């Protein structure tokens, strides 16, 4: 008979998922000594845009689906009561605004129907939106099967499946599993076996050109670079390690807090290396940064923390934030004279500072 004082697997998962919401919202776990490098990207002002603001078309097509803007609500949460409310609001936003939406890692949903509902609420509120199911590379290495992946896709009737790569987070996480041997072969197997597009993403440390090339060779449908400069998941796990007095993990989290490839640098080097569609994420906070990422070669951009913060506050705050982001994106397009996303993608930009130096050395 199990010890009544020992938490069950479900309770442990729910607490970890709750920490993943509470810590970013209540503590400062943003990048400290680095940034996304997007501040070093300057779009060129067009004083004669020859278009009307209201005529600008933000819509775009990605993986065969039409989006009202090149924006995805990036993978965040699930597996806890708070996530039900947040995912419900985010799903409502994705449906009304025609945006994409990723769910948090869904391994928890395989263990419990109760936890599965914290993810499926997104589809309930977004019957027509492009939803992205989510599994972890570490879980693939542990033996998560193709059948399990299919169950995860069915859980939210997903339009695509993302495999998230988080070796740094697994390394620092007190209960982490930094075992990545065999993950690439599993990705290749998923690409061949799934009947939805397979996307691979990082979670805040970036995708290098070498990894991008390997993923393109694997046949993935898109890559989300998810660079550094935003929320530090090493920082999140460092604070969790402090809570359980795991000094070794806490020291690792402190040391590697700012580890990774800045978002703009990751996007540029991946774009030069591969032709597969790219999603830019990692520390994006406004519509101007979305515009910069499209100009740098991203097919889509994605945000997590800003949507999480607004959704946790209220439905009204969430919709107000989305309105602001889309207005900022449209304004940037007006100011560079881009009537649509295709024109924005070919807009001229200037690289400055540390980013220009890094690109020149590459």
TrEMBL record:
Residues noted as binding substrate in the record, renumbered to the chain: 16-17, 105-107, 169
Residues given in the record as Mg(2+) binding sites? 170
Provide the FMN-dependent dehydrogenase domain boundaries: 185-347
Is Phosphoprotein given among the entry's keywords? no
* Ranges in a coiled coil: none
Per UniProt, which keywords does this protein have? Cytoplasm, Flavoprotein, FMN, Isomerase, Isoprene biosynthesis, Magnesium, Metal-binding, NADP
The record, for SMART domains, names: IMPDH
Q: What catalytic activity does the UniProt entry give for this protein? A: isopentenyl diphosphate = dimethylallyl diphosphate
- Where does the protein end up? Cytoplasm
Question: Which coenzymes or cofactors are required?
Answer: Mg(2+); FMN; NADPH
Question: What are the BP-aspect GO terms?
Answer: isoprenoid biosynthetic process
Instruction: Name where it mostly resides.
Output: cytoplasm
Assembly and partners are described as: Homooctamer. Dimer of tetramers.
What exactly does this protein do? Involved in the biosynthesis of isoprenoids. Catalyzes the 1,3-allylic rearrangement of the homoallylic substrate isopentenyl (IPP) to its allylic isomer, dimethylallyl diphosphate (DMAPP).
Q: Which family does it belong to?
A: Belongs to the IPP isomerase type 2 family.
> In its UniProt entry, what is this protein called?
Isopentenyl-diphosphate delta-isomerase
Q: Which organism is this entry from?
A: Candidatus Nitrososphaera evergladensis SR1
């Amino acid at each position: 008979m199990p010890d009544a004082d020992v938490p069950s697997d479900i309770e442990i998962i729910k607490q970890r998922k709750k920490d993943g919401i509470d810590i970013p919202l209540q503590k400062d776990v943003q990048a400290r000594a680095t940034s996304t490098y997007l501040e070093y990207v300057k779009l060129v002002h067009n004083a004669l845009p020859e278009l009307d603001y209201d005529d600008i078309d933000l819509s775009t097509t990605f993986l065969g689906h039409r989006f009202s803007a090149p924006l995805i609500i990036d993978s965040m949460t699930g597996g806890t009561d708070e996530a039900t409310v947040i995912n419900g609001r985010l799903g409502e936003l994705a449906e009304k605004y025609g945006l994409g939406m990723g769910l948090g890692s869904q391994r928890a949903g395989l263990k419990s129907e109760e936890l599965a509902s914290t993810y499926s609420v997104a589809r309930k509120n977004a019957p027509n939106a492009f939803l992205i199911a989510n599994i972890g590379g570490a879980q693939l290495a542990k033996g998560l099967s193709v059948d399990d992946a299919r169950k995860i896709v069915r859980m939210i009737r997903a339009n695509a499946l993302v495999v998230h790569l988080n070796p740094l987070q697994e390394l620092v996480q007190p209960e982490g599993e930094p075992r990545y041997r065999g993950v690439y072969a599993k990705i290749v197997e998923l690409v061949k076996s799934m009947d939805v597009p397979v996307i691979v993403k990082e979670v805040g440390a970036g995708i290098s050109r070498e990894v991008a090339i390997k993923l393109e060779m694997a046949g993935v449908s898109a890559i989300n670079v998810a660079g550094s400069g935003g929320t530090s998941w090493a920082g999140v796990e460092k604070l969790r390690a402090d809570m359980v007095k795991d000094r070794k993990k806490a020291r690792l989290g402190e040391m590697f807090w700012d580890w990774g490839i800045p978002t703009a640098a990751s996007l540029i080097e991946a774009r030069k290396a591969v032709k597969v569609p790219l999603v830019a994420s990692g520390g994006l906070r406004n519509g101007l940064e979305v515009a910069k990422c499209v100009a740098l070669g991203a097919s889509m951009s994605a945000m997590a923390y800003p949507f999480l913060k607004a959704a946790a506050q209220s439905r009204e705050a969430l919709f107000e934030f989305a309105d602001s982001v889309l207005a900022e994106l449209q304004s940037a397009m007006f100011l560079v004279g881009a009537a649509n996303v295709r024109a924005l993608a070919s807009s001229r930009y200037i690289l400055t500072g540390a980013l220009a130096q890094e690109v020149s050395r590459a």
